[in-house]
Write a structure and sequence with these properties.
Number of domains of chain B: 2
Largest interface: A-B, 53 and 57 residues
Largest sheet of chain B: 4 strands, antiparallel
Order of helices and strands of chain A: HEEEHEEEE
Helix content of chain A: 10-25%
Strand order of the largest sheet of chain A: 3-2-4-7
Number of strands of chain A: 7
Shape of chain A: extended
Strand content of chain B: 35-45%
Distance between the termini of chain A: 30 Å
Number of helices of chain B: 2
Number of domains of chain A: 1
Oligomer: heterodimer
Largest sheet of chain A: 4 strands, antiparallel
Shape of chain B: globular
Radius of gyration of chain B: 25 Å
Structural class of chain B: mainly beta
Chain lengths: ~90, ~210
């Protein structure tokens, strides 16, 4: 098994094209939404349509988060987000 | 320690010659290659170039010397890998296949500085063993952070966002929220695959509500 662990690598994912990219944030909660294997759904969302479950790629759903905005030396204002993003890992030829 | 084997031209300096005698294995050089005209030499008195094949090529301007040094393949001594995770807080974990993956977090020992962590650990549930992965200077890894999203997908683990504090000396300590996305995966090459799979992953963001 040790040999396999050496093959684990991090890879930076870059946003593709002009798709909206969530502003920098921390503390956003994400779940996996999609299909693994034969139609079984993963995550907290239930797929209503079995046909959709067959074709829907596995994606990650992110909601919320917070960013601190420093007004001046004394005060920091926190911006809380209520938007929902879906990230789809896609293979992209170089 | 790495051993350098130097080869010198006869006019080389005493210092370099001593080094050559000490370490042996001299390789003769063709001086016409390594002794350019004085006006072509760089302004620095000594130039040392480390080539990709670990060959060191040097020149001394004042004394007109040239040398070539071959560094034999050496293994850099490293501390033995740790078998247990240091205390972490605000880290994230995800189950991927039979591995429990842990990344990041911070360690706040009570001083003025919070130690943000950027180490990746996996706990093998078949062997009941912690192993640190993606370590070493050549390994690409997300910067240290806490408060990020960490999700296990069928092919790997997605990491997004997070927070860390910048403790650059001379600057005011400032917390930064991050917006980069990373993917932890196994670059296992299947047997039937002749060439290395040459692809990268793109984060395709889809805005569904705002």
């Amino acid at each position: 098994m040790d040999a396999d662990l050496k093959l684990i690598k991090w890879q930076r994912m870059k946003p593709k094209g002009q798709t909206p990219h969530p502003p920098s944030r921390s503390g956003c909660t994400g779940v996996v939404w999609g299909v693994t294997g034969k139609g079984s759904s993963v995550g907290c969302m239930t797929l209503q349509s079995p046909q959709l479950a067959e074709t829907m790629p596995t994606s990650a759903v992110l909601f919320g988060g917070v960013t601190d905005v420093m007004q001046d030396e004394e005060s920091i204002e926190s911006v809380f987000y209520q938007d929902l993003f879906v990230v789809l890992p896609m293979t992209q030829a170089i | 320690m790495a051993t350098l084997h130097f080869a010198n031209t006869p006019e080389s300096s005493q210092r370099t010659r001593r080094r050559s005698q000490r370490q042996g294995n001299a390789v003769p050089l063709r001086r016409r290659i390594f002794q350019p005209a004085p006006e072509q030499l760089p302004p620095l008195p000594r130039l040392l170039v480390v080539r990709r094949d670990d060959t060191h090529v040097g020149a001394h301007r004042d004394q007109g010397e040239a040398w070539c040094a071959q560094r034999p393949p050496v293994s850099i001594p490293r501390p033995p890998p740790r078998s247990a995770v240091d205390p972490h807080y605000s880290y994230r974990m995800a189950f991927w296949k039979h591995l429990l993956v842990l990344f990041g977090g911070f360690n706040d020992p009570g001083g003025p500085k919070t130690h943000y962590l950027g180490d990746t650990w996996v706990f093998d549930t078949q062997e009941y063993k912690w192993t640190q992965v993606c370590m070493g200077p050549t390994q690409q890894s997300p910067q240290a952070r806490s408060g990020f999203s960490f999700m296990a997908m069928p092919d790997g683990v997605v990491l997004h966002g997070g927070y860390c504090k910048d403790y650059t000396k001379g600057k005011k300590v400032q917390g930064t929220a991050l917006d980069d996305t990373w993917f932890l995966k196994s670059v296992f090459k299947p047997e039937h695959c002749v060439t290395e799979p040459n692809f990268t992953l793109a984060a395709g963001w889809t805005l569904t509500s705002s």
